[in-house]
Design brief:
This protein is mainly alpha-helical and 107 residues long. The chain has one domain. 76% of the residues lie in helices and 0% in strands. The longest helix is centred in the C-terminal third of the chain and has 20 residues. It is globular.
Length: 107
């Protein structure tokens, strides 16, 4: 899935360099992808992605809340990786790890 590589690249390049519109577009792509996945935990991630979009559209972005949400998404993503198969599981885990790393490196 090219969605994995694109997201991981954006995260590793630095989430602060991610424009709001690019982040929202990426989030919406993930929501669409996850709605087709029938793995326990994906609905929680979709809800958290929706919450992240709301935070990003706020007049004043609460950086701490966004950071906590990204950390939560990282943890949830790594967790569902254990329920996926093959290369997809590896990519999901890499994404979760990138999110977790981004949440600890953003200030």
């Amino acid at each position: 899935m090219p969605q994995f590589e694109a997201t991981i690249k954006h995260i590793k390049d630095g989430v602060k360099n991610f424009t709001i519109s690019a982040a929202v577009k990426n989030i919406e792509g993930w929501e669409a992808t996850l709605e087709k996945v029938e793995v326990s935990g994906t609905k929680t991630i979709v809800k958290d992605l929706e919450s992240l979009k709301h935070h990003l559209h706020a007049k004043e972005i609460d950086g701490e809340a966004v950071k906590k949400l990204i950390a939560k998404l990282g943890k949830e993503t790594v967790t569902i990786a254990g329920r996926a198969d093959g290369k997809t599981a590896e990519k999901i885990k890499s994404l979760g790890e990138a999110l977790t790393e981004a949440s600890s490196s953003t200030a």
